[in-house]
Amino acid sequence: MRQLTTIAMDGTVFAAILFLISVGLTLVFGVLRILNVAHGGLYAFGAFTATTLAMRLLDLGANPYFTYLMLLVAPVIVGVIAGPLIERVFLQRVYGRAEAIQLLLTFSIFLILDDLIKLIWGTKPLFVSAPYTLLGEFSLSGIRYSWYQVVLIAVAILFGGALVWAVRGTRIGKIAVSVINDREISQAIGINVNRVYMGSFTLGAFCAALGGALIAPTIAVAPGFAVDATVLAFAVIAIGGMGNLEGAALGALIVGLLRAMAVHLFPEADLVVIYLAMIVVLVIRPQGLFGQVELRRI
Amino acid sequence: MEAKRLPLAPAVGGAALLLVVPFILPDWMKFIVTLAMAKFVAVLAVALFLRANLVTFGHAMFYAVGAYAVGFSVKWFRIDDMVVLLLLGALLGAGAAALIGLVMARYREVFFAMLNLAFSMMLYGVLLKLYWLTGGTDGLGVGRPTFLGYAPPREYLRDFLYYTTLGVAGIVIYVVHRFLASPLGFYLRALADNEIRIEYSGESVRRVLYVTYIVAGALGAVAGVLTAFTVGHIVPEYSFWIQSGDFVFVALLGGYGSVVGPLIGSIAFEFIRTYASKYFPNEWQMTLGIIMLAIILFRPGGLWAIYEALAARVGRRPSEGRRA
After folding, report:
1. Mind listing the domains of chain A with CATH numbers?
2. pLDDT-wise least confident of A48-57, A276-285, B1-10, B271-280
3. What are the pLDDT digits (tens) for B114-170?
């Protein structure tokens, strides 16, 4: 019973972070039709920026509660700078070119981001625990958890809800949906498609960085965790269905819980289990759980 | 479509150069060129997919299959013959690819790339965690190979390895050239343009991809066998995504439109890496990324296209002069 609660709790917390990252990836894929391999790099950038800002703030002697603000400011900075930069300077040049070329382009951006992090922040792990410890702990069937973990879950649910509302209920969201469905017709009826592309990519980058910033207080931030993020996020959206928001939520929950189960029950197999889950889902339902079958174009 | 001939003059010149390399280059460079030619075999496999507009971020898994085939054979069965293990490796690589290919032949685009990644990272995880079998991160030593039962003295081992690798690379170039000139090879290229028309013409797309996958798997494993003996040590990183990424990078650098391009790319890559890791070890990946970006945006054909453009310019001038 005790182990079950731990698995459920750990799994849900992990799923919350995974959801934030994957929803960004699925959004970018939905609109741009490009799998952004550099997504994990943006996630890492979010984590590093948030940690540095929070550390600076504490060094200056500010109220530690302000670190929460930094966790939100950092992803905005990363999103607003990296989003338009990557989309306008690089991605924009390969729209309509071969799929392989698009993948390789984002892969090279990923490689650059990965080393940029080492150049800027060095290779020593950074640690800022103030946001994690400030909220205190509670105990559940004898095991202590931080309230911060509950906050993470709440943020993920709220953010997901807001995103679904933004896409389905607002004018901007409807414009985005029309671009997703048909780029040319959208352009013909007067939608600025380029702006939608840039906006979606920026929002996607923000989601990745937000995931990174929020997980930063719970771990030691060190280079090299960007790849796992890309692969896991891909596994999540592949399971849920590429370009589908609800799919990202379900996929994140599946992957999060599986990972927690593996970590607690067979620690040798933690990564293998996730890849296996992805392969099984794709073999049975190639379009993912929520995805639609795509017609082949002639 | 006109089948491309292998350009004769540069091919003969290059082959002659590679034949005399052991006499003119110091030992460490010989080692680098051997390594480059070994990895070239795997790069050629990745280039096959790129022709069909498919990227794989996981081809290193077959590379690891070949390498660990050597590791286990040496450790358990005391088989350390290069030729036997090359054949065994190719067979195991093809076998593994025949299994995984059953799944993979159904996928294209990002799914193909990421599913390959998933399979290779699973293998990596297994190799890492089963340390009682694989030595974990410490890896396995493979010792010195014999060549059809003959054990060359230590001072000539490097040369034996060099010429074996060169020979295998030559055979592979020929085989892949023939494969690409076969109907299946043409269908593979057509895969990038239009799948449905392939099926209209009576060929099964899945079969084209499946056969290619098996060929590519065998090539990857052969590269793994050659590398294992050249380096003398194997680690789980053989199956890591960075290795797969390197293969893709080299194919792009050399130019996947030709069979020789990847060879040039491979040799250039190993030398760039040797110097880069010496002078700026922390910016190595970034260097790769920037070069790759530059190629994608400005020279999609890679080094080979640059060479061809130069050769065309040099070759055109005299004939135009004559005509005028």
Report:
1. 2-284 (1.10.3470)
2. B1-10
3. 889 888 888 888 888 887 777 777 778 787 887 777 777 777 788 888 888 888 998
Cross-strand pairs, B233: B141
Residue B46 domain flag: yes
Residues of B in contact with A90 (CB under 8 A): 293, 297
> In chain B, how many domains are there?
1
Domain assignment present for B179: yes
Q: Is the pTM of this model over 0.90?
A: no
What is the domain extent for residue B232? 27-240
Residue B17's pLDDT is: 77
In the stretch 45-84 of chain A, residues with CB closer than 8 A to chain B read none
Residue B2 included in any domain: no
Q: Is A276's CB within 8 Å of B125's CB?
A: no
Residue ranges in chain B modelled with pLDDT below 70: 1-11, 315-324
Query: Parallel, antiparallel, or unpaired for β B140-141 and A143-146?
Result: unpaired
Cβ contact (<8 Å) for B53 and A90? no
Residue B301 included in any domain = no
Nearest CA in chain B to A98: B53
CB-based contact A112 B286, cutoff 8 Å: yes
∠B148-B150-B152 over CA atoms, to 5°? 130
Q: For residue A274, which of A286, A249, A257 has the smallest C-alpha distance? A: A257
Contact between residue B283 and residue A115 where contact means Cβ atoms under 8 Å apart: yes
Query: Do the chains contact at B117 and A272, CB–CB below 8 Å?
Result: no
Q: Give the pLDDT score at A209.
A: 92
